[in-house]
Amino acid sequence: MARPVLKQPTTMRRARGFTLVELMVVVAIIGVLAALAIYGLRKYQLSAGTSEATAMLQSIRGAEEAWRAENLAYGGCTNGGAAPVTTMSLGVNDLYPRPLAGINDKKIQWGAVTTNMGLCFRALGIKSDGPVRFSYGVMAGNPGTAANLTLPDTWQKPPPNIPSPREPWYVGVAYGNRDNDALYARLSTSSLMNEVYVEDDTE
Fold first, then answer.
1. 31, containing H or E segment
2. Would 74 disulfide with which of 140, 149, 201, 202, CB 3.0-4.6 Å?
3. Terminal CA-CA length for the chain
4. In the beta sheet, which residues pair with residue 171?
5. What is the pLDDT of residues 10-59, one digit of tens each?
6. Rounded to an integer, what is the distance from CA 182 to the centroid of its chain?
7. Which helix (H) or strand (E) holds 25?
């Protein structure tokens, strides 16, 4: 008995495409992934932008401790003197390598500006191997004296509020203006804190 011959279908079944719901789900997933990537990139950029200042403030911490080991006191720098002193105030011109009004989004070579501030920082052993975008200041005091931060750019929290400590102290600050506007990124550290305090790191 002859076997029946199976006939091939005369038409091919059409391939099934994506439905509108499936396309919307794919688009939503891509959108979420893109948002996460943008957030991560932004966070990395902000961290990289303040890494210079964080590293320099840690350098200031080390230099201050070395200075105290030799002199039994911390040293501060002002534009009026080339040697470290115990100065309880820090003003608009007491930053290096640029005063507050001169800070912008451009880098400047450390040591390119010869001022008393620069000489004082050199005496303390504070230096940078490359150009910097932030400017730095350091003030110091004896036991029983309080800090007087007279920089006009107001901190949300004074950096830090020192209530006349019973031992020598110092405060180091960093100011930057990466977007070149009227606001500043501000970082600080001191002998009374182990971390670096940051405000407005997007500036």
1. helix 20-71
2. 140
3. 91
4. 139, 190
5. 555 555 667 888 888 889 899 888 888 877 776 665 555 788 999 999 99
6. 17
7. helix 20-71
pLDDT tens, position by position, 103-138: 998 999 998 777 888 899 999 999 998 899 999 999
Residues 34 and 133: their CA atoms lie apart, in Å, by 31
Place of tokens 């029946």: 4
Tokens of 34: 């893109």
DSSP line for 73-118:
S--B--TT-SS-B---EE-TT--BSS-GGG--SS-B-TT-S-SHHH
Residue 105 makes CB contacts below 8 A (sequence gap 6+) with 133, 177, 178, 179, 180
Q: In what order do the strands lie in the sheet with 185-190?
A: 135-141, 169-176, 185-190, 197-199
Q: How far apart are CA 3 and CA 12, in angstroms?
A: 25
